[in-house]
Amino acid sequence: MQRNSETPPQVPFADIARNLKPYAERLHRVACEIIDRGSFIGGAPVKSFEENLAAWLGLSAVCGVGCATSGLTITMKALGIGSGDQVITTANSAMPTPESISLTGAEVVFCDIEGGGFYNIDPTEIEAKISSRTKALLPVHLYGHPCNLERIRKIAQRHGLHLIEDCAQAQGARYRGRYVGTFGEAGVFSFFPSKNLGGFGDGGAVASADRELIAKVRRIANHGRGSHKYLHEVVGTNSRLDTLQAAMLDLLLPDLDAMNAARRRAAARYRERLAGIDDIVLPGEAEHCEPVYHVYVVVVPDREALIEFLGRRGIATGIHYPRALNLQPAYACLEQGEGAFPKAEYACRHMLSLPMFPTIGNDEIDRVCEAVSEFFK
Q1: Largest alpha-carbon pair distance within the chain?
Q2: Which residues contact 332 (CB under 8 A, 6 or more apart)?
């Protein structure tokens, strides 16, 4: 959720137009070629992007989908998850994460987070929540920081559970040298415009080392179609990555690692400039992790006062996310009110996202840090 001052911000929270400026001519050319061709569903551009993304990840197959939410839901359905089952996930994420579980008919089981500058699901909490009905774990690599995949993967293996990675905010993040999305049975990615690999509307992908699973995902995502256009083997849905989106994403994909490196440099500058402020909790970097800073989240005692202070100085901010998922009205049915997940709830009340994007300038970061330092003085 973006927060702006009344006057145009001197430091934007994100600047997609600036990020895309070096690619503008090539993107326009690609778009015009597809428009001239008049083919907008499927085709060679989609196949090319899927193959290139799979190769980049080091996996067997990728299926483009309409968005990450449907990608998660379709993946769970392809794994046979549905009514009567339980799926464990974090209480600190965007609504689409639990929503995707609910859309399968399965029950959402929330867990608290690690805390202390780390905002991903706590593996110890996962172990405590497993029941005879648990069928899958759905960890979220939130804010671009990998979860503790070693522990989570061992838990899944020990209990015979499916492991699906929500990588919507973490394209290109690495755990022990491997990209996230390659540790479970499937990794699901988002190409929403603000993401690290952002598209030009909604879009997503499911990636896996299991070709058969991707074939099932593709079938469900395309109205349950089998070998013939009018032969529907299962009840599916309409969730396809558009041709235009795929072609433009394919153009950006080779530079994703470089764009993520720029985000890490920005995060390092924030860390260096803000490290001496006692009242601010900076994001941690866990051992064996290479985060990609989809957003740069800090925890402060009085978030609203800092938002107002920065806004008056022309600095835009965001909140990701203002309410723990157990406190969303949509999940009141779980009867897990205030205090059920204290670490997630505290973080959601006090987290603030500072400006972060790959083309942010050092002068802009310095201006933010000077203002934050002034506030805490």
Answers
A1: 68
A2: none
CATH of the domain at 310: 3.90.1150.10
Q: Are 251 and 23 in contact (CB under 8 A)?
A: yes
The sheet with strand 204-208 has its strands ordered as 61-65, 204-208, 186-190, 162-166, 134-138, 86-90, 107-111
Note whether 239 and 291 are same-domain residues: no
What is the tens place of the pLDDT at every residue in 14-67?
A: 999 999 999 999 999 999 999 999 999 999 999 999 999 999 999 999 999 999
At a CB cut-off of 8 Å and minimum separation 6, what does 347 contact?
92, 113, 115, 119, 299, 324
For residues 170 and 195, the answer to whether their CB atoms sit within 8 Å is no
Tens-digit pLDDT profile for residues 77-107: 999 999 999 999 999 999 999 999 999 999 9
* Tokens (6 digits) for 249: 């994403």
Q: CB neighbours of 282 closer than 8 A, spacing ≥ 6?
A: 117, 270, 271, 274, 275, 298
Sheet (strand 289-290) strand order: 178-179, 174-175, 289-290
pTM of the shown model: 0.96
State the residue range of the domain holding 103. Answer: 21-254
Percent of the chain at pLDDT exceeding 90 = 96
Distances (CA, A) of 231 to 79, 219, 225, 323: 22, 11, 6, 44
Query: What is the mean predicted confidence (pLDDT) over 150-170?
Result: 98
**C-beta separation of 164 from 76 below 8 A:** yes
Give the integer Cα–Cα distance in Å for 333 and 335: 5
Contact 354, 2 (CB under 8 A): no
- Residues 114, 138 contacting (CB under 8 angstroms): no
Give the pair of three-digit tokens for residue 258.
């470089």
Residue 208 and residue 125 in one domain = yes
Cβ-contact 48, 250 below 8 angstroms: yes
Paired with 299 in beta bridges are 281, 351
Rounded to whole angstroms, the Cα distance separating 164 from 78 reads: 12
- How far is the C-alpha of 75 from the C-alpha of 79, rounded, in Å? 6
Domain count, the chain: 2
